[in-house]
Design brief:
The protein is α/β, with parallel strands linked by helices. The protein contains ten helices and 13 strands. The chain has helices spanning 23-39, 61-69, 89-102, 117-122, 130-145, 183-191, 206-215, 237-258, 285-299, 315-337, and strands at residues 6-11, 44-47, 76-79, 82-83, 109-112, 150-153, 158-162, 176-180, 195-198, 226-228, 231-233, 281-283, 303-307. A five-stranded parallel β-sheet has the order 3-2-1-13-10. Strands 4-5-8-9 form a four-stranded parallel β-sheet, covered by helices on one side. α2 (61-69) packs parallel to α3, α3 (89-102) packs across α5 and α9 (285-299) packs across α10. The longest helix is centred in the C-terminal third of the chain and has 23 residues, at 315-337. The chain is globular and about 60 Å long.
Length: 340
């Protein structure tokens, strides 16, 4: 049976001049918002990672995860995604061990390869190494999560006599997810026995991942599939949607500037029309429930996450919609998802 549906919010901490807030105030206000959402029953908070951007895009998610962990009781904390080539796997494994203890076992990890040339240049790495750094990084993390002492000798990393302390609260370490924009990513997720963050066309991502699991005797229904599909719950679309629409246009403009002339995520051939839909759902509670229920069923989604604070907005601007999302939409989505 498919795991129960979880509902989440995702943050990137981008702060454009339109917000009128300085960065310390934005950080504090978002933490307060998450505390409020945690009390309302939010299941997940995801963080994204990018580097060297003028809007302050979150470059380091582990400190904010720790800050939120100590203020919350229920919500699980993860990434979509942690860019593995820029994160040393042993150092990351230790950070995760601390976070897992700090949160009493509420940490997960979603990883990706990265694709923006300016980020690789900033870290002094050739883009051509992103596959090997990611594959070896996942392999090292898996060994770290085992709790056993190990050595490793690969193309990019070599370690001797390593054991991670403190140990993880969760047996086997934090649940591990892999982001996939192509069939190669889907095969990576299956090879390392990971949950999936599908970010490409269904035929190139979801179907190959499920087929690879089945070919090795594993049941894809036992794994999680998570995606960002945002929801604005409003009774007045004309009033509330234009500001979010402008923020989302800015978001995608910046993403596209990373790799001009290529597909989204730097994968040739990836275009919006072919990808699993990640457009906003906007409308009253009934409309949002109908649209998102159909989406969850169509793609087998188990973890549905909405952008909480679009760039240039304040947390207070989205509190009402998020509260309605959790009170009026999320329970109905979970009920509809039972037994799928």
């Amino acid at each position: 049976m498919r795991p129960p549906l979880r509902i989440g919010a995702v943050y990137d901490f981008r702060n454009t001049p339109e917000s009128g807030m300085d960065m310390p105030s934005l950080y504090a206000a978002i933490i307060d918002q998450v505390v409020m959402l945690d009390r309302l029953g939010l299941d997940l908070v995801w963080f994204t990672e990018h580097h060297f951007l003028d809007d302050g895009y979150l470059p380091s998610w582990t400190p904010i995860a720790g800050a939120i962990a100590v203020r919350t009781q229920h919500v699980r904390l993860s990434t979509d995604v942690c860019l593995l080539p820029f994160n040393h796997p042993i150092r990351l494994a230790e950070d995760l061990a601390v976070l897992d203890n700090l949160s009493n076992g509420r940490i997960e990890l979603g990883v990706g390869m990265g694709y923006a040339p300016h980020e690789f240049a900033g870290f002094g790495l050739p883009v051509s190494r992103r596959v090997s750094l990611t594959d070896e990084g996942i392999e090292v993390l898996r060994r770290c999560f085992s709790g056993e002492r190990f050595s490793f000798n690969g193309k990019r990393y070599a370690f001797s006599d390593v054991v991670i302390r403190p140990g993880y609260v969760q047996p086997g370490g934090p649940p591990l997810w892999v982001a996939a924009m192509s069939e190669a990513g889907a095969q990576r997720a299956a090879r390392f026995d990971c949950h999936l963050l599908p970010q490409g066309p269904r035929a190139a991502v979801l179907e190959p991942w499920r087929a690879a699991l089945a070919a090795s005797g594993r049941d894809a229904q036992r794994y999680r599939v998570g995606i960002i599909r945002s929801c604005l719950v409003t009774d007045d679309r004309d009033r509330d949607w234009p500001r979010i629409r402008a923020a989302e246009r800015y978001r995608h403009q910046v993403y596209r500037s990373f790799t001009p002339g290529t597909g989204l995520g730097g994968v040739a051939g990836n275009v919006d029309e072919e990808r699993i839909p990640q457009t906003w759902v906007v409308g009253d509670a009934d409309h949002c429930v109908a649209e998102l229920t159909a989406f969850i069923r169509a793609y087998g989604i188990t973890d549905l996450v909405t952008w909480a604070v679009p760039p240039g907005m304040r947390p207070e601007d989205t509190n009402q919609s998020l509260e309605r999302f959790l009170r009026e939409v999320a329970p109905r989505l979970k009920e509809a998802a039972r037994g799928l």
